[in-house]
Amino acid sequence: MVRKAGAAKRAANHARSTSGARVRVRVLCLSGPNLQLLGTREPEIYGRDTLDDVHARLAARGEELATEVIARQSNHEGQLCDWIGEARGAFDGMLLNAAAYTHTSLALFDAIKAVGLPCVEVHISNPEAREAYRHTSMIAPACIAKVSGFGTDSYVLALEGLVRWLAKRSAR
Ligand code: DQA
Fold this sequence. Notes:
alpha/beta; 6 helices; Rossmann fold; disordered N terminus; 6 strands
């Protein structure tokens, strides 16, 4: 038990490169449309943190988990698909707050499936507790998990969950 926990912890911090050398875990965090407005956008729903604040918190928590987090935002579905498409081989996993595209985008579902990287769906609010048109997620079936409703903490919780998931996979 102790030995397994130790192995999982080591694996949490490191992945293996093709040469067998230990390297840091790399996570791509993508945010979709209108999330550049965080901080001023409907603060009663999304809070007062800016997206830069969120990215700084991810970088700091990533540092503690020996994980490099590269964070990007776009209002454009095709740009998000491009970034996901380029992620294979460059990242171990992804966090995706697809914002409104969550509810509409077959293209993002296909992109996640195409690269085959573990992806965690992230939401600041809890879409299932909001308007009916937010209750369907097109991307959920392509994701390993979803974290929603914890405000901007959802991003950090999703990072922690993804790192643990990756550790368990490498301990297998
Ligand atoms: C959101 C929820 C979506 O329904 C909405 O379109 C967003 C933000 C969230 O983080 O709570 O833009 O993804």
